[in-house]
Automatic annotation (TrEMBL):
Domain PHP: 4-198
EC assignment: 3.1.3.15
Name of the protein in its database record: Histidinol-phosphatase
Domain of life: Bacteria
Record-linked NCBIfam families: hisJ_fam (TIGR01856), PRK07328.1 (NF005596)
Family from the record: Belongs to the PHP hydrolase family. HisK subfamily.
Pfam families: PHP
GO MF terms held by the record: histidinol-phosphatase activity
UniProt KW keywords: Amino-acid biosynthesis, Histidine biosynthesis, Hydrolase
Catalytic activity: L-histidinol phosphate + H2O = L-histidinol + phosphate
Pathway membership, UniProt: Amino-acid biosynthesis; L-histidine biosynthesis; L-histidine from 5-phospho-alpha-D-ribose 1-diphosphate: step 8/9
């Protein structure tokens, strides 16, 4: 049972090709389940399309849902297409988003922290001139936002859990005072973290999260899912088999995906 819950397409303004191309790529990669999870609009904005290179327009949202549902039906005998979404976690705007999302039949929603301390996580400048103590603070502030995103009850999947390291690879070696607490909360809330193979497209290389976090996630009983975070069709299912084998080596027995917000367990 091969699945990939994290894919984008051209609506977000920084991914290539349309939804159908990602479904076809999934078929070509021998997948059984493909989740479409483009970047949620900024519903809190007064503008229709405040960040055209980051996320789809508000007015595009109903068309996005309708297109995924149409393709779900069209492809149902060949592959299961899931209606998903990736949402930026901004604590102050989540109630508004929750209301909007509740009108649609989502299979799952990925919550991702892309901003921490008012700075984009991938911004290289955020690391300039920091003391070791400040670096630890940045890391723990980011992880604490992930904890809050798990507690807000809106998400099925935590996106790219240690992506703050993307352009600052040595962050993985910085100890965290809050990581274990965050993993405990995620496990209690029965949320999954994804192994996201898009780290290879950034300076840090490899996957999110790093193996030591996966080992601790296993210890706390956190569920695991798979996400390529494909922004081009040829990355759908990228390194799926390597991830499956690594998870087995670490000691996981199963992983999960979501259908109509219900966890589906798949043997590794
Ligand atoms: Zn993106
Ligand atoms: Zn993301």
């Amino acid at each position: 049972m091969k699945f990939d819950l994290h894919t984008h397409h051209d609506r977000c303004g920084h991914a290539e090709s349309g939804i159908r191309d990602y479904i076809e790529a999934a078929l070509g990669a021998g997948m059984n389940v493909i989740g479409i999870s483009d970047h949620s609009p900024y519903f809190e904005s007064t503008e229709d399309h405040p960040n055209p290179r980051t996320a789809m327009a508000k007015s595009e949202f109903p068309r996005y849902i309708a297109e995924v549902l149409r393709l779900k039906e069209e492809y149902k005998d060949r592959i299961e297409v899931l209606l998903g979404l990736e949402t930026d976690y901004f604590p102050e705007h989540m109630e508004l988003h929750r209301k909007v999302y509740s009108q649609y039949p989502f299979d799952y929603i990925i919550g991702s922290v892309h901003w921490s301390g008012g700075i984009k996580i991938f911004d290289r400048k955020r690391w300039k001139g920091l003391t070791p103590e400040q670096i630890t603070e940045h890391k723990d502030q980011y992880l604490d936002l992930i904890r809050q995103s798990a507690e807000c009850g809106m998400f099925d999947v935590i996106g790219h859990m240690d992506a703050l390291k993307a352009n600052y690879p040595s962050l993985s070696q910085v100890p965290s005072k809050v990581l274990d607490e965050v993993l405990k909360v995620i496990a209690e809330r029965r949320i999954a973290i994804e192994v996201n193979t898009s780290g290879k497209t950034k300076e840090c290389g490899g996957w999110y999260p790093a193996d030591d976090i996966l080992e601790r996630a296993l210890y706390y009983g956190v569920g695991i899912t798979f996400g390529s975070d494909a922004h081009r069709p040829d990355r759908v299912g990228d390194e799926w088999e390597q991830v499956r084998l690594r998870l087995k080596e670490i000691g996981f027995k199963e992983w999960v995906f979501f259908r109509r917000r219900q966890k589906q367990i798949v043997t590794l």
